[in-house]
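Retro notes, item 3 of 5
We never archived the inputs for the iron/sulfur cluster complex last cycle. Fixing that now. Sequence and ligand:
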Amino acid sequence: MLYNTLGKTGLEVSRLGFGTMRLPTFNSNDEIDTEEASKMLEYGIENGINLIDTAYPYHSKTLEGSGNSERFVGKFLAENNYRDEVYISTKSPSWAIESKNDFQMYLDEQLEKLQTDYIDIYLLHSLNVPDWEKVKNFDVLDFLDDCLSSGTVKHVGFSSHIEIDYLIEIIDEYPKWEVVMTQMNYFDEYYQSGIMGLEYLKEVNIGSMIMEPLRGGRLVNNIPQSVQDIWNMAEVKRTPVEWALQYLWNRDDVDCVLSGMTSLNQVKENIEIASKIDKISDYDGEIIREVARQYRSFVGNRCTRCGYCMPCPEGVDIINCLTEFNIANMLNDPKASAMQYFTLIDEDSRADSCIDCKKCIPFCSQMLNIPEELQRVYEYFGSEFDHF
Ligand code: SF4
Ligand code: SF4
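Structure as it came back at the time:
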């Protein structure tokens, strides 16, 4: 295993972190196969992984309930005396906070679930601009200050799917942020805060933790032949997982890549990849960009995210509705995009809020019939997330 310093935390973390949102399960998402999951975690820790990432709702029955991932991790670490061997990263459910006292209430519950009296890295989960404003009004910064002074939390940060300008705004508002978790992989360089976000984190010495390195598996499963043909032209032959992970570890602004692993074989494969230095040549770097371009050619509509059609008088988030539909088509992964669609876009801003007034159509730089495109989005995603 190779290790990186996690920004200003100074922690030496394994460059592969163990994400616990996709542990093996039985019939439903909240029924973790603890026997198999224990084997995976044990193998991971024994082979050098020292950062385990979880969150309040992971492995719950619903999108936002109290999940079993934290319970499983806490029990596993306590029973096997691993607590001092690893750093625990978990997240406060920012969307669920409805009063000042809720921060402490959730933290207490999490400490209990995790069977520990401190959390190494505590992140505000999936911070977006409205939730950031809301939690600030509930004095979240005082709460974080108190956690740090009491030692209940060693380092604080946030995870987010926001655009670069908001990312910078939030970072600049609190000097004690030490870690930020963002989505990144070779397909998402310009999605959300993307590359620019990572560069900024490096500039201000904030540790970066990467989520979705394999885009929920879409970059490594059922590879289209046209994509495989491009990989075959590379100087060095790599598996799709190696391409995706080594792409990230070739960046000096990536500290820890979290992989939400589902089987022991995945743990073994990822650890083997994380243990070797594999410098990607300029030529192979171009191959990666060509693969990303190939995926983008499977696009569902021609929206360029220029924003000329916004704001919609009905509050429809046209850009992100069309974008999530596009990504779902590009990666042929409706479920993953549906998760983003239903969690990142407010209920009132989804495609089904379009009333077909047609006011936006003349403004579209790509001459799209926007209400028709939104109807396709609605037909594709439906009106509620039914993954569970
Ligand atoms: S057609 Fe739909 S998206 Fe366009 S302005 Fe009207 S309500 Fe908004
Ligand atoms: S104007 Fe057209 S291309 Fe631009 S963001 Fe709106 S829908 Fe997309």
